[in-house]
Amino acid sequence: TIIGGSGNIGRWVADFAHTLGHRVTIQDLGKSPDLNPDWSFESDFHKSIKNADVVVLATPMQITNGLLIDLSKSDTKAIIVEVCSLKSPVKVGAQKCIDNGLKFVSLHPMFGPNTETLFEKNLILCPITKEDKTYDKVKKFIKKTPINLIEIPFDKHDSFMRYILGSSHLINLI
Question: Above 70 in pLDDT, residue 169?
C-alpha cells in the first residue's frame, strides 16, 4: 500500500513495486484519473493498511509524522516505510511505531521521481535501533537491486544532509 500514491514519489514507488510483481494499492485523498488499471485504489486510510504487507508513506513531510502516530496505534503487521528527506520532523511518530512493536523502516531516496533506472543511484537506510530484523530484511531486498545502499543512523541523518547540501551549494558558489 502506498499512502500518498497519487503524488510523484508515490507513483514512482508504486511503479517500482508493480514492476517487481507486487500487488499495489494506492491510498490518497482522491483517485487520479490516470491510475494504472492494475493497481487498486482505496480512499480510506485504515482499510488500505488492513491487509498490507508493506505500507509506504510517500506523503508530504508535514503530515507524515501524524500518519506514523496513527499507524502506531494500529494492529498492522505490515512493514511501515517512510521516505522523507528529513528525519527530525518524523522522529516522534517513528519512535511511537517502534515503541508499539511495529516494523518500521526509514529511507531517503537520493533521486527523484523521474528516475528510470536505479543503476548508480543512492538510497539512504536510516536505522533507529542497533539491531533490527526488519532493517536486515529490507537491506537484503535492496541489495538485490543495482542501487547503492548507504546507512546513516536516523538521529544523524539531518546533520549529515546539512553538510552534504551545504557543501554542494558552496561548490556552486565557487
Answer: no
